[in-house]
Design a protein that fits this description.
Length: 129
């Protein structure tokens, strides 16, 4: 009788451990997918920002060169000063915008994993923190 109880208890503990490991594996896979998505999002943002800065730099260089050549005789210093102010203001605005775009999503970087773990704890009956 005691041996039968011990074997049933061992079988149940083995099933609980197997379910726990299966649950942990699923959550780790989800975490890995979310991490990969974050890396791709950041790489995409950085690549697009770098390309945009390169194209804007070329365009602005040629626009200022044209403006300075057009105003060479009378107002070249005003043209250069105005271009400098415009570039500095635009650069500051773009840096602020880029910083805002690189902020993590409102729910956090791994919101889906945190939500799933909270559901798992609720299923087990653990009190929420």
């Amino acid at each position: 009788m005691a041996l039968d109880f011990a074997s049933r208890l061992a079988a149940r503990l083995q099933r609980v451990a197997d379910l726990g490991l299966s649950l942990l594996q699923t959550r780790l896979e989800l975490l890995g997918i979310e991490l990969q998505q974050e890396v791709l999002r950041l790489f995409d943002a950085v690549a697009r920002a770098a390309l945009a800065m390169l194209l804007l730099a070329f365009g602005l260089f040629f626009a200022v060169a044209l403006l300075v050549v057009l105003l060479w005789d009378g107002h070249r210093l005003w043209a250069l000063g105005g271009a400098a102010v415009l570039f500095l203001a635009s650069g500051a605005w773009l840096m602020r915008d880029a910083r805002m775009r690189l902020q993590p999503s409102p729910g956090g970087s791994f919101a889906a994993s945190v939500d799933e773990l909270a559901k798992d704890r609720a299923q087990v009956g653990a009190p929420p923190e």
